[in-house]
Amino acid sequence: MTKTALVLGAGGFIGGHLVRRLKREGFWVRGVDLKFHEYSETEADDFLIGDLREQSTCRDVVDRQFDEVYQLAADMGGAGYIFTGLNDADIMHNSATINLNILDACFKRNIKKIFYSSSACMYPAFNQEDPDNPNCAESSAYPAAPDSEYGWEKLFSERLYLAYNRNHGMSCRVARYHNIFGPQGTWDGGKEKAPAAICRKVAQARADGEIDIWGDGRQTRSFLYIDECIEGTLRLARSEDFEGPVNIGSEEMVTIDQLVDMVSDIAGKPVVKKHIPGPTGVRGRNSDNRLVRERLGWAPAQSLRAGLEKTYPWIERQVFRNAS
User: Fold this and answer.
1) By the 8 A CB rule, do 289 and 161 touch?
2) What is the pTM of this model?
3) Residues 264, 138 share a domain
């Protein structure tokens, strides 16, 4: 009998890749989003345009049992969207409402297991002040002090899913994503994340030209390629005895300046870094993968550079297509 999956946020970057993976595994897939995927035709068997902030939409979407449910839908973006403070109310209201509605609809359909994508942004800012030694172990989450309202909403929603596990006998799974990147993701417009923004800036720059870098360039991050993210996601979603929360990320930490140098080298285009004021988030963040290795036997298999070598050419093509 064909298995079925529901992917909420299927018109987004991670959701689009997840739908393709599930289809390769033989699933019948329903995708839901406010929009169709911007960069490729969906492979979902059934794709619904709908606003998950509306309870009636969620009831229509969750109209049957599904073998697997993936809740990726959220109001999100990169530093230029999350850390300016201008979008805080929308971020908190929209994402929390979606999670409240989806959990209620799934509970009423007796769907026991939902995968929920949280974020490393929920970790305390005070543990991420040293760019060389950030602490993002799962156990470091409390006392809570995220550096953004986006992080606070993610933390609330984590607790919401786990409360449904305790009080309603559900088996939801919670992952904390760390900076996922790759082809077919947002690369301009203000919601793009650092790898995509840097790839775009390098692609647009003339050789030896200047590109703007927010902050001093010494802030650190780790970045996880999309295929790795999907593998970690499926392992957690299908875990029989581990609910999380657990990090899904890379432990290969780099400074933003090092990320620029890597992209510049891949492009074969030297650039000059111009450091300017801008939203940067915490000083340091890196995935701690001890728990995910122990409980799921998973760790990323490829390097940051390998992922960028696949991502940069795709973004370069978008830049040239957009300019023509």
Assistant:
1) no
2) 0.94
3) no
